[in-house]
Fold these 2 entries.
Entry 1:
Amino acid sequence: MITEIAQLDIKPGMESEFEEAMKKAVPIFERARGCHGLDLRRSIEKPGHYWLFVAWDTVDDHLLGFRRSPDFQEWRKLVGHCFADSPDVTHADPILSFS
Amino acid sequence: MITEIAQLDIKPGMESEFEEAMKKAVPIFERARGCHGLDLRRSIEKPGHYWLFVAWDTVDDHLLGFRRSPDFQEWRKLVGHCFADSPDVTHADPILSFS
């Protein structure tokens, strides 16, 4: 399982609208093939900056499956107008963890 | 609970040494006051780049408690020589999640 790490800069004053839209978007990720969870976090130091972490089976599930699906367009329709810039998106493999 | 998000660039060729040192460092985080877990992830697109996510009760538990403790020095002693640059460290609040 890999993690998509997306950094999203939201237009000033649109933070609440973005968070509400993300709540509505949860089912899109719940039904996405290979998607195992999502965490949305908001920067403490820079409040218009958000971190979106999405667990996928593989990078291809994200980039080839989800990105090319109608549901990706659906997600962008819900939240895209809140973005100040293009999201910065990367992926990472797990190395170690405890909780 | 907040998340520390640290980005670590490791000197080329020192990735395995860094990962081994991080394994040794786990007890440091396990015993840190206010620390509830750690995830180390390695970038897929840029393999010398790591993401360290640490769950703390508060930002102060990280910056005032841990950073000023002898255990922080202990951690830097284990891993600091592997860093190519100063880590980029920030913090985020949870907004929504599912798994």
Note: Chain A touches chain B through 34 residues (CB under 8 Å).
Entry 2:
Amino acid sequence: MLMFLDDYSEGAHPAVLEALVAHNGGQELGYGEDQHSRLATARIAAQVGRDCEVHLLVGGTQTNLTCLGAFLRPHEGVLAAQTAHINVHETGAVEATGHRIVQIPTPTGKLDPGLVDQALAQHQDEHSVRPAGIFLAQATEAGGVYSGEELRTLCSHAHARGLWVYLDGARLAPALAVLGARLDLIASCGVDAFFAGGTKNGALCGEAVVLVNDELRRDFRYHMKQRGALLAKGRLLGIQFARLFDRDDLWYRLGAQANAAAARLARGLRDSGVPPRAAEANQVFVELPGDAAARLATAVRFHVWSRGERGTLIRLVCSWATDDATVDRLIDEVRRALAPSTATETPPGEAPESGTMPGTGHGA
Amino acid sequence: MLMFLDDYSEGAHPAVLEALVAHNGGQELGYGEDQHSRLATARIAAQVGRDCEVHLLVGGTQTNLTCLGAFLRPHEGVLAAQTAHINVHETGAVEATGHRIVQIPTPTGKLDPGLVDQALAQHQDEHSVRPAGIFLAQATEAGGVYSGEELRTLCSHAHARGLWVYLDGARLAPALAVLGARLDLIASCGVDAFFAGGTKNGALCGEAVVLVNDELRRDFRYHMKQRGALLAKGRLLGIQFARLFDRDDLWYRLGAQANAAAARLARGLRDSGVPPRAAEANQVFVELPGDAAARLATAVRFHVWSRGERGTLIRLVCSWATDDATVDRLIDEVRRALAPSTATETPPGEAPESGTMPGTGHGA
Amino acid sequence: MLMFLDDYSEGAHPAVLEALVAHNGGQELGYGEDQHSRLATARIAAQVGRDCEVHLLVGGTQTNLTCLGAFLRPHEGVLAAQTAHINVHETGAVEATGHRIVQIPTPTGKLDPGLVDQALAQHQDEHSVRPAGIFLAQATEAGGVYSGEELRTLCSHAHARGLWVYLDGARLAPALAVLGARLDLIASCGVDAFFAGGTKNGALCGEAVVLVNDELRRDFRYHMKQRGALLAKGRLLGIQFARLFDRDDLWYRLGAQANAAAARLARGLRDSGVPPRAAEANQVFVELPGDAAARLATAVRFHVWSRGERGTLIRLVCSWATDDATVDRLIDEVRRALAPSTATETPPGEAPESGTMPGTGHGA
Amino acid sequence: MLMFLDDYSEGAHPAVLEALVAHNGGQELGYGEDQHSRLATARIAAQVGRDCEVHLLVGGTQTNLTCLGAFLRPHEGVLAAQTAHINVHETGAVEATGHRIVQIPTPTGKLDPGLVDQALAQHQDEHSVRPAGIFLAQATEAGGVYSGEELRTLCSHAHARGLWVYLDGARLAPALAVLGARLDLIASCGVDAFFAGGTKNGALCGEAVVLVNDELRRDFRYHMKQRGALLAKGRLLGIQFARLFDRDDLWYRLGAQANAAAARLARGLRDSGVPPRAAEANQVFVELPGDAAARLATAVRFHVWSRGERGTLIRLVCSWATDDATVDRLIDEVRRALAPSTATETPPGEAPESGTMPGTGHGA
């Protein structure tokens, strides 16, 4: 069974694993004060290229809830696309810290100044929460990538209205590869805080939070500890991020590799007559007609995004570990699913095995 | 300036005030254990007509957050219409207790089994909150009233899916007057918990919570105390509710009075060429063409509900204290606003003085 | 049965009730924007005598949780005496807003700079909460009153350490009467925020929050609304506080009246051979030997504070409504309880009827 | 510089690391549904020896806040020793989930039925939180170990009062080694939920939660996800725990190894004239007279527990990685510190370099 479910099904990239093995011995201080964490955060800060604070956390939901919980006062809420991961796939983690997510419907998963202003217009007095910041994802859960220009415009628009901008970078490496940019781009566009994702880009776990805005930095380690996000053996994160952000730009290269696999897949789909709807970074969204998705599901695991009258929109995710041969096998399976006579028979109408839940996949 | 902003601009009904004066002397136990609170809750329970627990709280937002905070476990959320008061006008009070409101778009402000099932279909595993209950308002914020049949269907549908039903009865008295029913209707339809609103129906403050479902009762006084909702001088609530639910059915009659005023207003609007969009209970929603709303705002305070291309939808609320003469003056003002030549000039395009925020009014 | 349980067993002071009756008619804006609330808050601000913001809330627990929830960031805690009301009698209301109360053991219920520093020494890094402020009660739950000098010292000590000072003034009127002072004293000593209690001093309900420190004012009405503490018919609070702080100094006089009753009681106890342990303001703590408390409980309701080998420490609370005759009857009952042969027999060892829970009374 | 600060300064045990390397390749399902996690939880459940649910989380604070947040309803609190880790070194993580920790002073860090009943006596009505469960640590933060008999008594006492018992097993392996027992002991004593610590016993990260009591299991994965405790690449935890609980009993043996090092250290201290105060499992608490601790701190890192008139109580922690030679070097350093003339001179009175904060060490 081929797996194109998500980008966290793999283990660590071999180079990251080697680093873990190489630095396993000896004693280190706990809670992120070890030499590896210091090295990793220094490397990341250097690449951000401006004054900032860097912290290493374990996972994406943890990072989102720790950051937003730290940034928001009780009566404040955060604006986010209705499809945002924090809104649909984190089990109310932000609400559990006491805060409302102000949901903004947007077909592309992207926010823009007009959408922000519409939301603000609905929140003008003490009978509504006070919007304090904007949550973006780069790449978005729907596969889109904000251009530098879009980010800059959105950030300056937000700042003019007293809002900060927080960017979920679970898939930041592929997004930066699309833009041909590096970490400094994000901060230079005005993003106040963001994280550079490790889990989906070569690490076993780990997200590197970058706090640019001085006001958002205060006492961040307290918030980490309180949310259970201050790892005792911080070296586990330090070693991985030090390696990912080492001189060979491993983290950036892995993002580009994932995109290359996705691009190959997109070409194959186009050639097969099912051009993908969106495939900017490492996620490919394609609508398969009729029962094709159900047939494909007998050979491939993927997430069903939505079901419509004409077919099923599915998500196929590539990672740094997806090789060409696997992509090509997937394309073959898609062709077989599209031309059922040549494939093993699947009873029409049978639901795909995976992704029985419409909506974004868990790791979107 | 006429005021049709809401139904909490008046003081207490004279009979309620008299009761407060009559029972002011002497000492009483605190925290709802006084004789008046015992009498009031016994009267209400008797009218509910089945085993239940009754508690007296101070206000609507307090009641909603105390009840929902008590009923929900941390990972659970409550389904509610997108226009629900808890969703748009309570400053994230439910989220501040740690819970997500699962918003359901519905043009009428009413939920039905199909809408519930659609929402449930989006919440099927541990990556989403677990819907545990349904929030209804009777009457709804958009002025509608659930029939007994609608309530019964919705409750049995909910129960079959393991959901409880909680009903916000800030305007329950007018709603019951529409239905020609009494408190027993609500419980007999299967509603698990609800409150009978006092603030908007003759009291200075106070909402009487009725817990029918045994599982939702556990330790409710602890929750009240923790949320600051256990009034020290409980007699303030006890005296008022004992009076409202005394033999003369004051509480029911006041709801009917508010509806009568709204009906007179609705007739007047119809006769003036602007038939109201909804006027089931004591709220009248009417769309005024062009700048008529702006002109009306020079003489009348009201909430603007939404602005469209053809005009402005406004809300006019009547209460038990709204007399015929005042309604007739309002109708005159509406006519004047509709035929500007006969009225004091208002610069066209000027925004209404009140209700600058589109959306539901605060007390909706 | 005589009742000396607490100071919230009475109704409203007649003058307050009269004001409610006098101003019941007519329409007013909701949510504290009515003319009475504006008048009340202006009067209180004038008496505070410096720039401040005044808000009217309903009850003490509600006020404490709204204020502390607003002032504290998630990782911050508040220092308080172990006997503080928020620590022992508010059902974890502060914790329910997400914050730790750092408990400081203190026999008198009073804090001082040394105790504060000891607590700070235990909270020095991100593995502990960050103490952000100090909770005081004036009068304290144990009946003590901070002198102006004590308050000033404590506030300047706190400020030097980056802490704000919040003062629970549920019994502020009696405390100020002890000091011969007015509201301006509290602010002039450096207290950053406090409330002037109405519930225990002549009102049916209501606490007036005074925010002196500019940083603690931000968006306070949002916090009120979110906690269910923004009363719809704000006039109920406005009318009462406008009357209490009218030119005749009713609020101050009621505090002095309660103290006078307590002083008469204290003299009587002393003359009866049981000098009270503490009786600074309107609460009298006295230890009754042997089974005297049990005997007294057959005729008087009161709270048992603690039980020891030599006797039982009880709390007797006087209010503005406690007249001399009632105090004298209480003293007679105490004498009878101390000399059982002249009283109706009580089986020795029987527990007092009320106050079966050792610890502070609920309204302490 | 020797390090006896804690038991999380080491990397992974080599066998655990080898397993991570061996199973790094290939794709696995995310969020704990991978084959390794299934294997690990099955092995642990088998060793518990009764019906239970096992979940793998990342760290100790995360585990405590996820479990207690899941088990408690809003108005409920948990009883814990004043020295409990959740009370002193988790930055109010439990309070941040909305719950009070009811602190019980106990010199040994151990709870017993009498202490529990005293606490319950202070929490009898809705003005206090409702105690719902008991938090224990095994071994305790002060180095003690509950015997099976003590646990059994405490659990049956708790159950008789409607309380559950939750046991923090960050150092469960050393504790079980002391008792010569295995995981089945904990459940057989009646503990309702506990975790078997990996971080301090050979893993890079990870705590295995065992839910025995059926009522505490409900929807646990929802709680994990909401708290950011459901690791995307669950294999990281699965592989480690599958290895630790493999047939060679690695997890148990590592606990015994840590104890053996501590026992060697205790003997050495005794022979040096400073018999340790407590050294039941892998933590050794010893009081060094005069300035000896300050001198020792020039060569060894450790935590200062408390400072008294006669000397300084320090904590020395051994782990599975502490070899005999290192222990012997530490003993030499202690002797040198005790007999300063033979050692490099240290200015008397200088504070130890590490552990400047009295109280339990962070990882206690």
Note: Residues 343-364 of chain C have pLDDT under 50 and may be disordered.
